[in-house]
Amino acid sequence: MRLLKKGVIAAGLLACVAATSVAAVADEVKIALNGVNDPQTNAEAAFIAGFTEALEGTDFEVSVFPSGTLGSERERFDQVAQGLVEVNLATVSTAFGMSPVLKGVLLPFMFEDNDEFDALMAGSNLLDEINGPLQENGVQIAGFNYIGTSIGIHNTTRPITRMSDLEGLRFRSLNAEQLAYQEALGATGTIVAWSEVANAIQTGVADGYFNPPNSAIRTGHTEFLVHFTQANISPSTRAVMLSEDWYQSLSDEQRTQIDGAVQAGFEANRAWIDDWSEEVVRRHEDAGVTISELEPGERDQMVEATRSTWADIMTPEDLTLYVEALEQLRN
Which of the listed CATH numbers 3.40.50.970, 3.40.190.170, 3.30.450.150, 1.20.1250.20 matches domain 152-234+288-330? Predict the structure, then answer.
């Protein structure tokens, strides 16, 4: 594996890539991600390790572009659509405008847990529905990585074991959609850029946030976010995007090799998450964070309280695809 460091200038690199035809570089697989390529600390890097190992002995050579080397999420999305990058480990929301049905992946309390999400994507045609408009524009989503355990509730004030415990607390909101479901749960919210979160919480502008548990560990926020509840609000997913033009240019044998490598990457990612689920609890406890669980029936109340917000995020037709697929899975 060849690792290009963050200091590489993305514009100059892409100019060189663009000057070479897709056919001429068919054996190179460039993977871009917004994070470090360290399988010990990064679940997406674990995907890359599994993907790369599966391609050993083939004619493919994997090059990794970490930590935003090739630009922002939007820039990397455009590059994979143009065939300049073969694989992009991307935030799901970058494709919302092109494929609105993808919004269902992030709906609050839609899925019981990661296992149900995986089973739904494997046993339904939802991924085909998601990919329809994407493939027309040069991108396909091969599936989803996890970057940590499911999203829970971090706060500075008290253990959250019931929905009523959220009353009187104000949480950082990522966007208007998250703000809406925080308010539906009885809390209040305020939209704050991630770069300003630590200051907002330390100055009392916000009492916490809804994020995977590893977020507070990675950022050092456990110094003041001393309570965490794993509420399984939604999976902490990111999309594995492939260049459609590149994928279709491969021979049948090469496509089979890439499919196998992608599957190996997903298996490595899930194995990392399984190990991390125990490690993240230990790290919270070592940092003095109180770990709480929801009382029986409380998550069901949260599901009902936030269900009305789903219709504000998705069209009725798109939402029905998820609801009906889940009903079939659960029955």
Answer: 3.40.190.170
